[in-house]
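Q: what sequence does this backbone want?
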């Protein structure tokens, strides 16, 4: 049986009832009247709360800038009030709300500035004695990433995250439930969930969606039904609230609390629920995402290869000039042509990759909403790019060489990314498919030792130019089939390498792509602006059944013959 952890309910309404005036900041009120906040906390603890949220949600430097109040002082007094009320019977969460300003590229606040705001709160909360950090009522996944990184790098406290969604399953800035769950599952937060203005009935299908992406403990903190705008009240009573919350136990939800409109009586009824059946199913779905676009791995997914300066003098020149208009144009063209993920390679003579990578990432994220794959052998460039990348990215790549594994895999783990493993080592690319399979196993096993699940390692069996190594085309295909069938991993392949140096490359590339997809390739790195290769993908999807009723095929080729 899964043990239930009962949280507290609303704080704002109870503070208003106790004297908080309109426009007055709850955190400052709590600092000036700690006995009132302590009394409210104690009521929740006596009702059955075993985790209470300190009155600190907006106690950040950005929101307190015009008050003259010290962040550390406000947090210290409010956490102390919660701890006195908890009296060893409950844990105290440092409640942390949004920083209060949109992050780049959709806003103007730099990532590092948001990070510092959250880092200051986390340090102050840990110093004050908080037991965990609970980021609550978040709406932007970029904001969440800055917050979680700050918490993980500044303390050892467990990290919880809840976001506010509307009934469609999106936040105010468009983040989806899947994007949130996929990103935070990779980050390894201790628990995640949904809070906000929705009632239990409206939140239920969103939690079903979240459960399909993660096996982390899930938090549910609904309001007392939907708000009646005319009356300005929530009309669900405590009994009905508990009855509806009881349904979440079947989904394996183990952390329940209340949002707007809930009181200690609501929490008392929650505390009377019996534990549900423990749900130990692993995540059913995989993918990578941006802030608001999920690319789920459920068939062939295209990785666009064009943002690569090799052989592109104009792109090389503009990168050196820090003019990103060509990069943006390539990104938009590939998105329009059907790319699902964009590979970013900026390795050119004279380019400082570590300095330029985050700038390129932000430029691309300002014009397209696709997940990104960061392509570099420079670990500093990879980390800089991952820090700027909103959502869950892929790192391209590691090899089986020890130096590569031990410099890149820790970054993959830290930032919750997926990783491409190249089946080569310090001696180069092996001759046989069996040798490549063995290197793939070494990469996956080493990744696992860093805490990276096997399913998040994607294997590239390496296509070599057929004009110089004709025998290797079939070895690559054999290796793809072996990795797919024996390891059950997703397979990546730079398909166009096969035709390098040949006249009329298109037919060779398209034919090899088709054979590779049949062997298990599901993440081809190709140019989506090339009609022949995209036609091959469309035909394969129709033949494999991925394209249900061939609908996408007929949409691509609407004319009748």
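A:
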């Amino acid at each position: 049986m899964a043990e239930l952890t009962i949280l507290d309910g609303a704080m704002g309404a109870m503070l208003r009832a106790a004297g908080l005036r309109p426009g007055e900041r709850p955190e400052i009120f709590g600092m000036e009247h700690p006995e009132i906040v302590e009394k409210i906390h104690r009521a929740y603890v006596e009702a059955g709360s075993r985790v209470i949220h300190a009155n600190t949600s907006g106690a950040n430097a950005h929101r307190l800038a015009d008050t003259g109040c010290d962040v550390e002082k406000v947090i210290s007094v409010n956490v102390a009030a919660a701890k006195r009320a908890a009296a060893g019977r409950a844990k105290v969460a440092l409640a942390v709300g949004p920083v209060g300003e949109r992050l780049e590229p959709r806003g103007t606040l730099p990532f590092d500035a948001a990070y510092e705001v959250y880092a200051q709160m986390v340090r102050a909360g840990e110093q004050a004695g908080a037991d965990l950090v609970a980021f609550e009522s978040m709406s932007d996944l970029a904001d969440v990433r800055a917050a979680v990184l700050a918490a993980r790098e500044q303390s050892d406290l467990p990290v919880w995250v809840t976001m506010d969604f509307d009934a469609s399953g999106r936040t105010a800035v468009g983040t989806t439930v899947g994007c949130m769950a996929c990103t935070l599952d990779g980050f390894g937060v201790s628990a995640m969930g949904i809070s906000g203005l929705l009632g239990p009935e409206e939140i239920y299908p969103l939690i079903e969606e979240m459960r399909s992406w993660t096996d982390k403990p899930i938090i549910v903190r609904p309001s007392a039904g939907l708000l009646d705008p005319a009356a300005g009240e929530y009309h669900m009573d405590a009994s009905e609230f508990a009855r509806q919350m009881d349904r979440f136990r079947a989904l394996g939800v183990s952390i329940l609390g209340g949002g707007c409109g809930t009181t200690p009586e609501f929490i008392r009824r929650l505390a009377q629920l019996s534990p549900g059946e423990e749900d130990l199913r692993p995540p059913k779905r995989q993918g990578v995402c941006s802030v608001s676009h999920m690319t789920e791995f459920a068939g062939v997914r295209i990785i666009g290869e064009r943002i690569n300066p090799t052989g592109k003098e104009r792109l090389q020149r503009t990168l050196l000039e820090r003019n990103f208009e060509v990069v943006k144009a390539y990104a938009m063209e590939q998105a329009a042509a059907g790319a699902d993920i964009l590979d970013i390679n900026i390795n050119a003579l004279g380019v400082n990759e570590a300095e330029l990578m985050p700038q390129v990432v932000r430029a691309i994220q300002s014009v397209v909403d696709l997940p990104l794959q960061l392509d570099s052998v420079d670990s500093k460039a990879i980390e800089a790019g991952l820090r700027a990348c909103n959502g869950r990215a892929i790192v391209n790549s590691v090899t089986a060489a020890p130096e590569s594994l031990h410099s890149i895999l820790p970054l993959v783990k830290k930032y919750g990314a997926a990783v491409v493993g190249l089946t080569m080592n310090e001696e180069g690319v092996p001759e046989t498919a069996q040798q490549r399979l063995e290197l793939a196993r070494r990469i996956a096993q080493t990744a696992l030792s860093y805490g990276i699940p096997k399913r998040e390692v994607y294997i590239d069996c390496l296509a070599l130019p057929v004009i110089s190594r004709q025998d290797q085309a079939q070895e690559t295909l054999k290796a793809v089939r072996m990795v797919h069938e024996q390891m059950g991993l997703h397979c990546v392949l730079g398909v166009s390498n096969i035709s390098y140096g040949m006249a009329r490359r298109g037919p060779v590339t398209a034919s090899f792509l088709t054979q590779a997809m049949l062997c298990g390739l599901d993440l081809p790195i190709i140019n989506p602006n090339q009609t022949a290769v995209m036609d091959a993908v469309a035909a394969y999807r129709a033949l494999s059944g991925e394209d249900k009723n061939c609908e996408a095929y007929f949409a691509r080729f609407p004319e009748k013959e």
